[in-house]
Amino acid sequence: MVNEEKEYVNYTEMVTSIMEARSMSSPPLAYTHTYGCQGNVADGEIINGMLSEMGFRFTDDMQKADFILFNTCAVREHAEDRVFGNVGALKHIKRKNPNTVIALCGCMVQQEHIAEKIRRSYPHVDLVFGTHVIKHFPKLLFETLTGGQRVFEISGSDGTIAENLPLRRDGTVKAWLPIMYGCNNFCSYCVVPYVRGRERSRRSSVLIKEAENIIKAGYKEITLLGQNVNSYGANCEGELNFSELIRKMDEIEGDFLIRFMTSHPKDCTEELIDTIAQCKHTAHHLHLPFQAGSNRILREMNRKYTIERYIEIVEAARRAIPDLSITSDVIVGFPGETYEEFSETLDVIRRVKFTSLYTFIYSAREGTAAAKMDDPIPYEEKSAWLRELLSVQEEIAAERTALMVGQVVRVLVEGETKSGDLSCRTSNNLIVEVKGDLSLVGSFIYAEITEALNWILRGKIADM
Ligand code: SAH
Ligand code: SF4
User: Fold this and answer.
1) Which residue's CA lies nearest to atom 4 of ligand 2?
2) Which of 70, 106, 241, 444 lies deepest, with the highest CB count within 10 Å?
3) Phi, psi (5° rounding) for residue 62?
4) How many other C-beta atoms are found inside a 10 Å radius of the C-beta of residue 34?
5) Which superfamily does CATH assign the domain made up of 2-153 to?
6) Triad 262, 275, 216: Cα angle to 5°
7) Is 142 exposed, middle or buried (CB count within 10 Å of its CB: 0-12, 13-18, 19+)?
8) pLDDT for the residue 2
9) Hey, what's the torsion of the CAs at 442, 279, 252, 281, to 10 degrees?
10) Residue ranges of the domains in the chain?
11) CA–CA distance, 157 with 393 (Å, rounded to integer)
12) What is the bridge-based pairing of β-strands 431-434 and 422-426?
């Protein structure tokens, strides 16, 4: 650890002087863009922290950047296609400014076949590094700048977690706090266990300290992140479990919300439900992906719960927390799914009445079990199923939000809308827009709901 820290500081200093000597601007400018989930956003904040320590400033204009980095996502093919399109377009920038350093990192490039494609077909990319070597980023950038050749580093996880890395958070109101990395579940469609390695939990003592610092710094919301937060602490002798971790964080002084994602239904316990119900800071929101309504499809997906069990959890959670908002992820068109089986997904949506859904058409991922399964339903047909699903959900969301009109709710003011209003969120994850002064961003206020527009509510500030 001591040596690693020394290595980190040394390379940080060396990169600074090299970049200053060769860059077009002083201080050198970095453009970074993160695709995908909040876990990736949290990684991006570490990378930006390192760039900041290396003396970089940041720009939104790629044309002006000395260093361009895409932090990529691999969860669906569409995400990868977008990255390839955007990386292709960088060729022109490199032609104009050959000194620009172009780098790719994240889940997509952790896959050997993708790294190979970049090696062969995208010669203007200088540096490629995977998800397990972020702590070595300054060293890898140093090697790229001095070695005279492209650098590719996508080795696997060594099972450790690097702590004490710098961080440049994107926002001032909401903070991400990864509590664990990796995944052990191997859902048959999913690439995450292959690109993120096995589950590793961060020490609770480190996390509680970090949560305290986040609140002290003025943030009003912490989202605890992990692919399956419910298994936090498993296989770590003497460590807290997830509910215990939340309870410890709940003891921190201050007015703030604790959110978390993602909860896997197979590990969603009564203890967790009680914890959400009893803690004063926990948001009344549970993101609980069910993926599919048919038990046969759930088995094929290797999800390890039945839809009956899922409904049981939902009902228990609603009994304990009557205003709980439940959201979910759904995959449409898993290999071999029939229209009848898809209809069971619609039945679950009608029955549970989710606040909102994240919906995906199945995308085959190289190396996963599902990619080898027969997939006879054409994409167009799956798209029609998805449209049907969305219209069912739209009606439900409209019904739910209409019930809110006239209510006064406590919201956190998160930022500004495009039209200059305040964008706020309730504890149970509904978005409320109100007119008000921007100085209210970052505070909790009360809003009276005056109008419901599908999934967004409009309101006015209420005195309490
Ligand atoms: N760990 C989380 C999910 C992380 S991936 C969980 O288990 O709930 C986020 C979502 O992307 C998944 O819930 C799933 O709905 C979707 N997804 C993952 N792989 C996919 C694939 N190959 N095709 C389509 N959707 C996928
Ligand atoms: Fe992927 Fe399943 Fe792990 Fe979620 S739990 S990341 S869907 S393998």
Assistant:
1) 227
2) 106
3) -55, -35
4) 22
5) Methylthiotransferase, N-terminal domain (3.40.50.12160)
6) 80
7) buried
8) 45
9) 0
10) 2-153, 174-402, 408-461
11) 40
12) antiparallel
Q: What is the pLDDT of residues 344-358, one digit of tens each?
A: 999 999 999 999 999
Contact (CB, 8 A) for 62 and 68: yes
Mean pLDDT, all residues of the chain: 94
The burial class, CB within 10 Å (0-12 / 13-18 / 19+), for 31 is buried
CB of 331 sitting under 6 A from ligand 1: yes
CA 314 to chain centre: 23
Residue 98 contacts by C-beta under 8 Å, 6 or more apart in sequence? none
Q: What is the CA radius of gyration of the chain?
A: 23
Class of domain 408-461: mainly beta
Candidates 363, 406, 408, 404; CA nearest to 383 is 363
The fold for domain 174-402 equals pyruvate-formate lyase- activating enzyme (3.80.30)
- The 10 Å CB-count burial string (b at 16+, else e) for 389-411 is beebbeebbeebbeebeeeebeb
Q: What is the mean pLDDT of residues 359-372?
A: 97
Which residue, by CA, sits nearest to atom 13 of ligand 1? Answer: 329
Asked if pLDDT for residue 96 goes beyond 90, the answer is: yes
Instruction: Using alpha carbons, list the distances in angstroms from residue 291 to 158, 233, 299, 367, 444.
Output: 31, 25, 11, 20, 34
Rounded distance from Cα 302 to ligand 2 centre (Å): 10
Looking at the CA of 188, name the nearest ligand: 2
